[in-house]
Amino acid sequence: MFHCEMICLSVWPAWLHGDSKKVLYPTDSYGQFCGQKGTSNVKKPILFYFNILKCTNPAVLINLQCPTTQMCVSKCPDKFATYTEMQLQHKLNKSNWEYYRQFCKPDFNNLDKPISQVLRDEDCPSMIVPSRPCKDEKPLSLEFQLIIYFQNLNKCDMGDYQVQDARTDSLIFSLDVFICALCLSMCYRGLLLSLAVSMVFILLLRFTAGLLLWTTIITVILLLAYGMWYCSMKLSQLRHKPGSDVAIVEVSLQTDLQVYLQLTQTWIIFLVSLGVTEVSILLMLIFLRRRVRVAIALLREASKAIGHMMSTLFFPVVTFLLLTVCISYWLMTAIHLASSGNPIYKVVSPDVSCPYANSTCKPETFNRTNISKLALCQGSQCLFAFYGGETSYHRYLFLLQLSNLLVFLWLVNFSLALEQCTLAGTFASYYWAKRKPQDIPPCPLFSSFSRAIRYHTGSLAFGALILSVVQLVRIILEYLEQKLKGVDNSLSRFIMHCLKCCFWCLEKLLRYMSHNAYIMVAIYGKNFCTSAREAFFLIMRNVVRVAVLDRVTDFLLFLGKVLIAGGVGVVAFFFFTSKIPVIQEEVPNLNYYWVPLLTVVIGAYLIAHGFFNVYAICVDTLFLCFCDDLERNDGSSEKPFLMSPELHRILGKSSQVH
After folding, report:
1. What is the residue extent of each domain of the chain?
2. Which of 251, 275, 295, 349 pairs as cysteine with 357 (C-beta 3.0–4.6 A)?
């Protein structure tokens, strides 16, 4: 009931006062819709950025505002031109100036104004380049606009603005779309390959779990050793190369990764990282080899359980759909809350030390003030920031956004808790079956899901709420830290870091305890607090086993994910660099192949993580059942162990296992 009240609290005022058009549709720097009927922009449906490169500034993520003038225009530029050339040639060719003027501020027509002041006040853009609107039938993202920006900048001649004919432009556009579609299809193929490899890996785990896991460990060790040797070779090659001793900090952020690969410091970092990882794995194998055997036995038992209930591998799809609904709900509600009220304008300055930065302003009178003339505020502009007001509703708008965020976190954590409880109940029915698989109940996944929805919704919601409150506090602390960045107070920064550290540890502890509590809820059907207490004391009584086996098992699963993502990444690298002769003709000519390569690697890792997360829940459930089995039973004929003979043999039990 409280859950529904929280949702209504954040949704009702948002949908009553909000207007999603204010966020979804283009809005210029004056807060006016582009293409809106009844306004001067009715024939100007396209939003034009004076300098779109300023949108790549990381500060945009904080203020959610691109620090450049944005104007509504009727069409995008189709030629290259600069304001300097226009000012010099406007008397000779007025038609060119009239064309350029449509991309300036509507009230600007003073060509006698110095160029530096025009560019400082952003009365006109410094240049225009051929571009295409995002509202075509094939929408273009901001990243793709930047790519087109650089492409056109490279193709155009600075002193000449010839326009390609329609057929040539159409051909180039079709070629661009074809190349992008081909790159996307290659990325999809890589993701499908990772899906197939993950499925094959899981199937092999059922039959050859020990062999496959030891092969994975040895393969990772050999790959790390090869990486260390390769880094050493590169270091020896760069040692006498001029300029290779420059520090990475001095190079700053570069889009071309080849710049970093020419620095010795980069390869030293790679070498140290690989060496530490290699030593850690070897030490674990030497001193924890018995625990590794037990972890492999647990993984082998998990493979058998999943093999008898293959439908569990696809339950994350249900969780994905629930998370999609949660994100859609939160996003639409946040949009309506953010769009409530009248347009508010803020001073945007390229220098963060400007005393008037982020203060409220009026665009009609801003140019008559002395703000932009101050030394620290040169280049400041009065730009549209957000929608707000002075009513009691708008004063509590921030609290409504926080409540909406809390509900979002609650729903997300509830969806994840439902997945954990459902899968834990399914795998517990496998462990406690005396004869496997004969005694496994029919449709175990559906039965477990039904029990979780019917009997355990309150427990799952309560556990999710506790975790969500801690996550909300962490987000508020991050927000306060951003607000206090300009305050030179060491004590406040120290307290803030301590609070962030404490709540980070608290969230990790609650997440771990909730995970085990959901497993106990699924096994015994008790409430959340009772299950959390029983899980805690069960873990404490087996703290050595838990501390070692849990980490070892997670590490083995992590190696499997890295092996799959790395293998798919290697194949994608050879493909995008045209090093596979069989399909070399299908590869598009890419200037930056690392973008689709990273997309494939990250996507492959996420897909593998989705499959292996089911394995992790299965292992945790079987391990808690195993610990409880040791305490409840003694291996006699009256109280036989229900663990598998292999687990019994590895743990050194002498009693007979049935």
Report:
1. 342-388, 390-526
2. 349
